[in-house]
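Field log, afternoon session.

UNIT: design team B
ACTIVITY: writing a sequence onto a fixed backbone
BACKBONE:
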């Protein structure tokens, strides 16, 4: 493999380790938290609290406002998690959270456009509130949700991930998965045994690709991989650094175990 690789901090974006440059938070980056329309499990509360405290932007995507509101009521933390904005076409946002958050100063921003999904609208809004002079490449986006619920929503979330991977760093997290796009070329993925794995997969969602890997239980060597052919699923992370060389962008997904409070 080439030594000129692209570094992916992976779960270290969620739990930075400042002792090493590779695992530390990238100091020049803003952090945005986007909450999609999926329930927030209580076992994610510690991670939510940590990222919320670090985030420069906290945005609920339409019905994500309902989910955050329900989480806040259930955990008696409603006033501690007031988002900066709730955006989308707002067809899913219920009256009670809308009124509560509006009274707390949350921006309620409705997009009329029906040619883009609420997730896409959320990214458009985020770009409009970045610091002056910053672009999408200057902000790491952590997304709660998007990997469960309706299959068509899940697939479109992955599509948005692929469409944006050259513009920005986006990490999708749920109580079981951490997922991001690995671009074409040679890539180095950092893994943290405390939260990553052991199971993982490399999904060729952009079309047939040629894959070479190091650091997995079952490595590939210039192996064709496609949705209709071989896919590296239910593989095992065997190293704290995984190398992936690919001729097309692929999705890296790993079993995720959020740290408990």
């Amino acid at each position: 493999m080439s030594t000129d690789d692209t570094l992916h901090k992976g779960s270290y974006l969620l739990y930075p380790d400042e002792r090493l440059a590779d695992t530390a938070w990238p100091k020049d980056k803003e952090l945005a938290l986007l909450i999609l329309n999926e329930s927030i499990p209580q076992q994610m509360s510690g991670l939510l609290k940590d990222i919320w405290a670090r985030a420069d932007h906290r945005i609920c995507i339409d019905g994500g406002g309902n989910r955050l509101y329900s989480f806040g009521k259930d955990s008696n933390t409603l006033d501690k998690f007031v988002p900066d904005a709730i955006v989308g076409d707002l067809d899913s946002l219920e009256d009670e959270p809308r009124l509560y958050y509006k009274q707390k100063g949350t921006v309620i921003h409705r997009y009329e456009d029906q040619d883009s999904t609420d997730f896409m609208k959320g990214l458009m809004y985020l770009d409009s509130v970045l610091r002056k002079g910053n672009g999408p490449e200057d902000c790491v986006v952590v997304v709660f949700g998007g990997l469960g619920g309706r299959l068509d929503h899940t697939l479109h979330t992955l599509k948005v991930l692929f469409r944006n991977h050259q513009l920005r760093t986006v990490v999708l997290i749920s109580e079981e998965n951490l997922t991001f796009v690995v671009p074409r070329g040679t890539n180095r993925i950092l893994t943290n045994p405390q939260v990553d794995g052991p199971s993982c997969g490399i999904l060729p969602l952009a079309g047939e690709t040629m894959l070479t890997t190091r650091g997995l239980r079952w490595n590939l060597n210039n192996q064709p991989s496609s949705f209709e052919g071989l896919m590296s699923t239910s593989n095992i992370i065997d190293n704290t650094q995984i190398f992936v060389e690919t001729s097309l962008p692929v999705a890296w997904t790993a079993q995720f175990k959020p740290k408990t409070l």
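LOG NOTE: The chain is about 20% helix and 30% strand.
NEXT ACTIVITY: expression trials, pending approval
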